[in-house]
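Structure in, sequence out. Go:
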């Protein structure tokens, strides 16, 4: 079973700094990193900067389409207007089927604001108490959405980018 975890930091560079902690926990086998992305929102900026961590992603990573949709729903739809918002709203229904519901989106949207950052991690096989203890000293705040094995498979089916040399069916 995979878990989508959002670690919120009170500084715009906190999430980027926590990457070393995440890498170390993976080496210590405290979690299996499937995919990750960073959102940083410096003071004075209208919108956050988002970055998928290609160098950290594991086999079967979800790819840019997943992160693009999620970050669009979280940070950019309110800025784009009603027509685009309605289209994104329809797409978000499929996210609810895989464990990312409106409550999760509203909670993250309200917490990740100007002057903060967040580390989005899709992980598996986490030693939860040890991972929480490791992050406790970083000043991070945790918001998470657990995905069942069925939900994870559905998520991969919808958003996984085709492997090199393979083409997605249309």
């Amino acid at each position: 079973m995979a878990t989508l975890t959002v670690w919120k930091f009170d500084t715009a560079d906190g999430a980027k700094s926590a990457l070393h902690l995440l890498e170390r926990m993976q080496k210590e086998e405290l979690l299996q990193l499937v995919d990750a992305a960073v959102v940083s929102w410096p003071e004075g900026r209208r919108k956050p900067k988002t970055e998928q961590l290609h160098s950290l992603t594991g086999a079967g990573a979800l790819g840019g389409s997943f992160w693009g949709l999620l970050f669009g729903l979280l940070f950019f739809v309110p800025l784009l207007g009603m027509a685009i918002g309605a289209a994104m709203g329809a797409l978000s229904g499929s996210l609810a089927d895989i464990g990312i519901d409106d409550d999760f989106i509203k909670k993250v949207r309200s917490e990740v604001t100007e002057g903060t950052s967040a580390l989005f991690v899709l992980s598996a096989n986490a030693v939860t108490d040890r991972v929480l203890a490791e992050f406790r000293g970083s000043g991070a705040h945790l918001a998470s959405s657990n995905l069942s094995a069925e939900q994870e498979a559905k998520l991969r089916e919808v958003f996984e980018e085709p492997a090199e040399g393979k083409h997605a069916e249309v």
